[in-house]
Amino acid sequence: LKSKVQLFLFYSIPHLGKCMQKEHLNHCNFADHYFNRIKLKKYHLTKCLQNKPRISELARNIPSRNFLCKNFLSSKQGNEKPLSENMDAFEKVRIKHGGFVYYQEGCCLVRSKDEEADNDNYEVLFNLEELKLEQPFIDCIRVAPDEKYVAAKIRTEDSEASTCIVVKLSDQPVMEASFPNVSSFEWVKDEEDEDVLFYTFQRNLRCHDVYRATFGDNKRNERFYTEKDPSFFVFLYLTKDSRFLTMNIMSKTTSEVWLIDGLSPWDPPVLIQKRIHGVLYYVEHRDDELYILTNVGEPTEFKLMRTAADTPAIMNWDLFFTMKRNTKVVDLDMFKDHCVLFLKHSNLLYVNVIGLADDSVRSLKLPPWACGFIMDTNSDPENCPFQLCSPIRPPKYYTYKFAEGKLFEETGHEDPITKTSRVLRMEAKSKDGKLVPMTVFHKTDSEDLQKKPLLVQVYGAYGMDLKMNFRPERRVLVDDGWILAYCHVRGGGELGLQWHADGRLTKKLNGLADLEACIKTLHDQGFSQPSLTALTAFSAGGVLVGALCNSSPELLRAVTLEAPFLDNYIKRYCPCQNIKPQHYPSIHITAYENDERVPLKGIVSYTEKLKEAIAEHAKDSGEGYQVPNIILDIQPGGNHVIEDSHKKITAQIKFLYEELGLDSTSVFNNLKKYLKF
């Protein structure tokens, strides 16, 4: 991206999928005795295109497709702002509803008129300090259809527990109710114009119960559904047009969806398709039709199907849109006449716009620097806005305008990182011949990359993508000469469902082989060397990192882990069970005192066992042996991962610079531009 106002031409790319018309899945003839007909009621779409949750909140690893490539045009944004000096500014929850924007300002839930959203002219709706929580923040906001109430989920950095407050909107806003341990929640309105709040109750990190509540003169709060299978959890999602509230009952491999009528929420819910082991599906709605993302059929990647809303069972699903291998749908957005798919294919990002009237498909290849989407809540039926970002570049706005059939980019301040850094898409060949994608960043003017420090990041679990959102500390490292490498190994979701399946459970060693191949490939191609290489991961990514430290410690000089999984029941690759007397890289572990997902006891046990093995190895290594440092940094609180903790970021960077023998003066000066110390 070279200038503020420039036409960007991107060449045509191969189709990533195919549009279908009336092609039935003849192998899907399951009888469904739970099937009920839905009495359809006319609903005006334009009235309901409000700020809705994204389907990506349900489907973290979905598929994709492509067709025609079009132009990028620059578009001047009215509320353009320079780069923020505080990374927290990128994480604020803001939603638009009617003529207002709802958001957090300081310790308050506030709203302001749309055009005044960036000024100090706002109305305070609720002071979070009334909850008497330590540093509370708003995690999610939902506004009732007629703006009589607003609900907000409040959390703290010290805990995964949350409180949902309901505020009555009036001349003097007042908190009407509060509910503890709420996960997802949505508003609907019944036949008598009464607002009904549906919400899920979380207990022991699982959501099994759904409640519905009303307020005002007709207060009630009742349990609506309980899931009895402990391997499943429940999540609520309101379709883009507000026609249906979907109750999604999901496990890691199977899902079941019920429809709650958005016009008659007191009626019994309707089952779309009872759960079938191994079948996942997610639902949107438009013009009395259901659009279903599902992995049913061959290949077992996601595809888009549709059926009439009054005949929702699987036997009636028509194949509408297919995806090729190694393609993933990151998100889906539904409009009056279009369906927009946000895709990842071969480690690059695309947007596909499907015309629902004629089944036409237009595909846009996005700028090569882009590594991730940030979806905007959107009430404009004529435009589809979104943001693109990378680990070293803050989000940038783009808008697809349906009437013009073109993608416009935000103009104004151009981030200098576009000229001072390079992004490379590379591949490493694993032991079994699989090609493993990598995304690599470094300064354009770096000389002799073999002598530069390298930070490798990996996750490879739960079918989730490696996080590629903007992180100021990563930006600062690149500015200071580091090479960053993101390894998209099997077990993650970057190349679709099969990529995940090929790296989980008994196939977890594939992910380990991929990680080893990535690091060796980087070294072989002149990116750094073992003595200057560090590896980092959080949560479930700790399994692969811990396993690599046991199997190939010579590839690394230092490791940072946060809330890592280090003990599991598969002995072949369990980090804790395979510790042995040998040389290890220095390791810095951040753990949280009351983490319910990764108990502190297991991390302490791993650390002690590792220190014992290192001490035993040091006895036989002579006087000149440099014993690696093993640091366990226990932070207070019960959150699993605190991404924006300045204290944690500072400690990890300090550790890396000391272990690699680097001067940290400039990096900490640069960090002060972003972090508030």
Automatic annotation (TrEMBL):
It comes from Capra hircus. Belongs to the peptidase S9A family. Serine peptidase whose precise substrate specificity remains unclear. Does not cleave peptides after a arginine or lysine residue. Regulates trans-Golgi network morphology and sorting by regulating the membrane binding of the AP-1 complex. May play a role in the regulation of synaptic vesicle exocytosis. Keywords: Hydrolase, Protease, Serine protease. Residues 108-406 form the Peptidase S9A N-terminal domain. This is Prolyl endopeptidase. Its EC number is 3.4.21.-. Homodimer. Interacts with the AP-1 complex. GO terms for molecular function: serine-type endopeptidase activity. One of its GO terms (cellular component) is cytoskeleton. One of its GO terms (biological process) is proteolysis. Residues 470-568 form the Peptidase S9 prolyl oligopeptidase catalytic domain.
